[in-house]
Amino acid sequence: MDYLESLRGLKGSALDGIARALYERDIRAFEEIIVRLAVGGDPRDYEIAATMLATALVSAGPSKNNYASARFGTEDGEEYVNMLISACMRLGADEHGYMPMLLHAQYAQKGGVLRGWDKAVDRLLERTARADFDRAADLIDKYDRKFGKYSVLLKADRSRAIERLLGMALYGKNINKAAVRDVLMDYTEVADRLMSMYSGASAHDRVAIVRLLCAFKNDGVVHEFLRETVARDKSKSVREAAQAGIKTARIKNAAAYLENAMAEGVAHTVTEWTKLLSDPKLGEVADRIFFYMPASSGRARVLVYNDGALLGGDDRPITDDGAPVYILHPLDVTADCAGILAMDIAQPFLQIKRPVFHSLSGENFCSSRLAGTMIARAEFYANVKRCGFELCAKRSADERNIFVRRLGAYVIGAECDLPESSATVSCGKLYYYAAADVVKLKRNLYISSAHPLDVRSVPRREFSELTYLAYKLFGEV
């Protein structure tokens, strides 16, 4: 008797009862139905097959049948995965037959039987990848619609996995490139790889590279690279692709955007600034801040923005269109223009009145300047969000709680004491890292394996700005 159609209409205890009875009476027929559901089936069929397998007996302690343990989460499904594979092999179906079902486990309904197989599928894929990486990758490319299991390939061989993802994102056809980009965004080294590929690429490939780089546009280094591309690339298509990424990034909060450009020391040519500040939101902010051009004499030439142009001290427009221009930071102010710091004007963000921090005597690979500072927990978490800090994930329970904030090529890590029973948070030591040393996996940040920098090696602007962020985090400024 062909039970397949009737089984598709059952669920819950009715499905369990029929499946268990069939398994006990005719294992061969039971396996045939499982394989028919798994091979060429749809997500509903996959769930039925997994549910049926959960009624089969697997190895257990004396006089204990543990089929229910797979249903309720005390087992991770590995023995049932093996049962499915064995049944498929006995009935002539290879891994191309059962792999779609196994790869769907990660997307199956939470709490369902098939979702419980996900970790077992990870282990199977990792074993396959370590024995034959390309075979495992080909299966994922073909049957994983969102490329989620590239997390396993990245664990097996990070560089090869990223290389394949980049190839699909840049040159792939008839694939979900948005899904590929979503996976790549978790890996910070991708942006460096793309920028290194850029110079030797054709115009067509540069467009693809720039479009992918736009996914990392909130990174200060990438954002500056995109601006350089807009100004200098010979290809109009490349310039337009980069400009699209810049435009999206800059319209959300004009004051925050320009403040960050000041903090990172971002430079643009006069032509680039003029084009950028033609956006009314940015132009309104620029009208109330100061810019500067470095001079060969070491003196800073202070500029202002008015009526759509950058003006010098003589109120005349700057005519050197290719000269680099920065947003003035207090650390850029030289003695001849120090009077600007004493001005009493309202600005859209702290610029001339901005606190400046320098390393203290005795600060080497950490700073204790905020150690012991306490703040209410609710206020602390509001500051975390406002200042853009993130809590690093832990690899072990005894690791410290470290909140990090990136600024260009550097990161500050604030050690925090977060006792569950307390309504307060206290600061420990502050650490400074190279941003490249922070590991990002599946949107989690890890800092425990990174070595803190000697604070004296951190450029003074970045040191001051990162320290300022730590003070803001604990409400000290």
Structure description:
Helix content is 47%, strand content 12%. The protein is built from 21 helices and twelve strands. The longest helix is centred in the middle third of the chain and has 15 residues, at 236-250. The chain is elongated. 33% of the residues are buried.
| Largest sheet data | 5 strands, antiparallel
Percent range for helical residues?
A: 40-55%
Report the span from N to C terminus.
77 Å
Strand fraction equals: 5-15%
**Cα shape:** elongated
Report the radius of gyration as a whole number of Å.
Answer: 29 Å
Pick out the low-confidence regions.
Answer: 59-74
Mean pLDDT over the full residue set: 85
How many individual helices? 21
Strand line-up in the sheet with most strands = 1-5-2-3-4
Number of strands: 12
Q: Tell me the structural class.
A: alpha+beta
Oligomeric assembly = single chain
